[in-house]
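Figure 2 data, in text form.
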Amino acid sequence: MKTPTAGELLHQFLVQSCACKQEATAERYLLVHAQLHRYLEEAGHRILETQQIPYFRREQHKDPSDAFCRSFYAEEVIYALPGFLDPPWLNSNPTDRRIQISQTARLMGWLCKSGYVDRFWHSCALLEVEGAVRRARAES
């Protein structure tokens, strides 16, 4: 079975998140999804290990659009998530910010529950995401 890429996982999560939601809520989820995708493409490389950088650069050279999301997986998303809740990525609109924070927490939980991220193996990264969620909620 093929391991889904970060982009495929984000799409699956968005579809499941929007199921049975009111249109306004689904639209806000879509905005958060687009912002997370943009964040991963612009800043996701910062969490990569040294040996991953050449691969990422080759993928960027082939096609700069979606290089991170098509080349990496759930683990890289988890390690990148805390930065998504830091300025300048944290939404300035209070309602959108709350949705961004809650969707980030839900995404982390979904990646673990779905078996894409091992809670034991990546426990430190998960604690960092949880801490970022708590800080962002406290500052909102």
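Caption note: The first helix runs from residue 6 to 18.
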